[in-house]
Write a structure and sequence with these properties.
Two copies of one chain form a homodimer. The first copy, chain A, has 142 residues and is an alpha+beta fold. In chain A, 37% of the residues lie in helices and 22% in strands. Chain A has two domains: 5-79, Arc Repressor Mutant, subunit A; 90-141, Dna Ligase, domain 1, CATH 3.30.1490. In chain A, the strands form two sheets. In chain A, strands 4-3-5 form a three-stranded mixed sheet. A two-stranded antiparallel sheet of chain A has the order 1-2. Chain A starts with 18 loop residues before the first helix and ends with a helix. The A-B interface holds A 72-73, 92, 94, 96-97, 103, 105, 107, 109-110, 112-114, 116-118, 121-137, 140 and B 72-73, 92, 94, 96-97, 103, 105, 107, 109-110, 112-114, 116-118, 121-137, 140. β5 (124-135) of chain A pairs antiparallel with β5 (124-135) of chain B, so a sheet runs across the interface. The complex binds zinc ion (ZN) (4 copies). Chain A binds a DNA duplex (30 and 30 nucleotides) through residues 1, 18-21, 36-38, 50-54, 56-57, 61, 75.
DNA sequence: GTAGGTGATGTTATATCATTACATCGCGTT
DNA sequence: AACGCGATGTAATGATATAACATCACCTAC
């Protein structure tokens, strides 16, 4: 990396990304639904990516930087759309099973509730996953 | 099934399970950490189970009955240990990455927070996943 | 400038998790 | 007997993820 990285994170900025990392990030950012690693690979065949590992390695880095999230219940990935890109402590995802839209939500009551739970169980969380699968506002109409 | 099943769920009771379903459930209940479908298959080779599908079909049924939970972040399964086995509306799991222990937690503040989020987003959840990966009380000592 | 370190890359093979497709069986109902 | 229907057995395949190894680009130390 380039000189001052105190803690990784903060704002890596797309300019610091390598070619493969940029390709993967741009693909995710341009998608309107989560993509699997193999989805991404398919879309980047034309750019010279041929092996899954090229995508997984880029994803690992982007996850590290906080620019991408993994949706565990889908085995898929989305670009971070967190408004303000704050602490990212406990983000919730509302995933529409009909249209595939994903809303990224931060909520202090949720953070508080999770914090209270971990305190009372004396559990030290490293990563917390909150995913709601269901129907978005639009798709409930139909 | 046998006569009166109003809504599935409630308490299927192990006596209603088929042989394969019982084998899989007993294996999960006896384990002290989550098991993958292939873990279960390995342990049940001696009982005549040979193909993944035999395990996955039993798991599907047990999940349906609410007797087993799938941990999305591990692609693994645990027997339900919910004290009282209440509504199961929004269960949180605290998963120790060191020893593999899993605590199943229900908390009304968490349910409230999630409920508030879905209301304000007009999102209709069908299934909610809350998984915390980290270190349990015991493992923080070491 | 040469040697070494480090992180990204390319490629092949393999591991792990899950489903499709199809034939069969048991058992209660008609 | 004929049928429906859920569970079962088996083989093949699909989908997701990692291991292993060689190479390259770049920076730094000597
Ligand atoms: Zn985010
Ligand atoms: Zn939708
Ligand atoms: Zn439970
Ligand atoms: Zn532990």
């Amino acid at each position: 990396m380039n000189g001052d990285h105190h803690h990784e994170h903060a704002h890596a900025a797309r300019s610091d990304l390598t070619r493969n990392q940029s390709l993967v990030f741009d693909t995710l950012e341009g998608a309107d639904a989560p993509l699997t690693a193999y989805n991404i690979l398919d879309r980047l065949n034309g750019e010279g990516l041929r092996a899954p590992l090229q995508v997984y390695r880029a994803l690992d880095k982007l996850l590290d930087l906080g620019m991408v999230h993994r949706l565990e219940s889908l085995n898929a990935f989305v670009a971070c759309r967190h408004p303000g890109c704050a602490t990212h402590e406990a983000v919730a995802f509302a995933i529409c099973d009909d249209c595939g839209s994903v809303a990224e939500i931060t909520d202090s009551s949720l953070v508080d509730a999770l914090d209270t739970i971990t305190r009372s169980a004396d559990f030290k969380p490293r990563k917390t996953t909150v995913e709601m699968r269901g129907l978005c506002s639009d798709c409930q109409a139909a």
